[in-house]
Amino acid sequence: MDITGFLASLESSNLATGIRDSFYVFPLIESLHVLGLTMVFGTMLIVDLRLLGIASIRRPFTRITSDIMKWTWASFIWTAATGVLMFITNASVYYHNFFFRTKIVLLALAGINVLIFELTSGRTVHRWHKDASAPLAGRTAAILSLVLWITIIVMGRWIGFTTSQSKAPLDRDINLDDLFTPPANDSGTPK
Amino acid sequence: MIRQFAEWLSQTSLSILIQTHNAWVIPTIQSIHIIAIGVVLTSVLMIDLRILGWAGHDQTLRETTDRFGPWLSWALLVLLVTGISMVIGEPVRALLSFSFWLKMFLVAVGTLIAAILQITLKSNEHHWEQTLVNRRSVRSLAILTLLIWVGIVILGRLIAYDYVWGSWSLKPTA
After folding, report:
1. Contact predicate B48/B142, CB 8 Å
2. Residue A13, Ramachandran bin (φ over 0: left; ψ between -120 and 50: alpha; else beta)
3. Is A169 a domain residue?
C-alpha cells in the first residue's frame, strides 16, 4: 500500500470516523494533548536547568531525575497517544503540512539528543551528579533540548493554524449554520 | 454588556493592530502562553508532590517552594500578559466563551491557594513541616490544586471550541 492509501485508510478507520463524528471528542483530545505537552516541557525544563547549573543546583542530578523523569515519560506517552488520535482524523492533510513534518523531524532530533546524552555525560553521571552543573556534553544536550522543545511547541501551534480541520461537524448532513455561527473574524475552524 | 464590551474592544487600535498581524502574532502569543503554562503546571506539581510525599523527600517544603515559587509567580505574570494580549486581539473569541470565564474563576482559586500556601508557610514554617503536610485535609487540597490547574489547561484549549458547551456559551447563535 502506498502512503496515500495508508493515510486514507487511517482517515476512514472506525476510530478516526468516531472522533470526527463527535462534537466533543476532538476538542477534548486536543486539550489533553496540550495538558501532556505542557507537562513534558515543564518537567524537561527542570532537568535541563539542573544540567545547566541554573536551578536546583544543591540537589544531586540523579535525585531530580528519579523524582521527575517518570512524569516526563508518562506525559510523553500521553501526548504522543493523543497526537496520533488527532493525526488519524485528518492524516493526509497533516502529513503534507510543513509544520507537522518539521515537528516530527524535531521530535526525532530530541530523541537522538537524549540518546547522545545517555552515551556521553549520562555514562559518567555518578562522577558529576553532585556538581553544580553537568560536563560540557551534558550542558550542550540541555540547551539543545530546550531549543528543540520550544520549537516543537511553536510548530504544534502553527499546525493548528495551517490545517483546515475537516472534522466531523463539517462532514455531517446537518447544516452547521443551524447550530452556531462562528464569530465574524473567525475563519470558521476553531484554532 | 460583555458582548458590547467585546465589540468595543475589538475596535480599539491595539486590537486592530493584533488582528492585522494575526497570522503570526496570535500563534506566537499562544505558544509563549503554552510554554508558561508548562512552567506553572510543573511548579505546582513539584510543590504538591512534596506535600504528598511522592517526590523531593530530601528537601523541606520550604526549600521546595523556594525553588519553584518564584518560577510559578513569574510564569503566572507571563500568562497574565500573554492572556490579556489574546483577549485584546480576539475579544469576541475569549470574552463570550463559557470556557474562558470558568477558566478565569479557576485561575483565581488556584492563584489564591498558591498565595495562601506561600504566606502561611513563611510565617508558620515549623507547623507546616511537622504537622500540616501530614494532615489529610492539606493533602487533599494538594490534589485538588493540581486538578484545578489541569482543568485550567483543558479549559484554555476549549476556548477555541466553545460550542461544546451548547447554550452555556455566550457566542452568537443562529
Report:
1. yes
2. beta
3. no
Is A65 part of any domain?
A: yes
In tens, the pLDDT along B87-119 reads 999 999 899 999 999 999 999 999 999 999 989
Tell me, yes or no, whether B173 lies in a domain.
no
Residue A181 counted as domain residue: no
Contacts of A158 in chain B (CB under 8 A): 27
- Residue from the list A56, A67, A179 with its beta carbon closest to the beta carbon of B55: A67
| Domain of B101, in residue numbers | 2-168
Q: How far is A157 from chain B (nearest CA, A)?
A: 6
If one counts the domains in chain B, the total is 1
Taking CB atoms and an 8 Å cut-off, how many pairs form between chains A and B?
117
Residue owning grid cell 509563549: B32
Q: Is A74 on the interface with B (CB under 8 A)?
A: no
Q: Per the domain annotation, does B118 fall within a domain? A: yes
The pTM score is: 0.89
Nearest to B108 by CA among B118, B96, B116: B116
B23: contact with A, CB 8 A cutoff:
yes
The reply to whether ipTM tops 0.90 is: yes
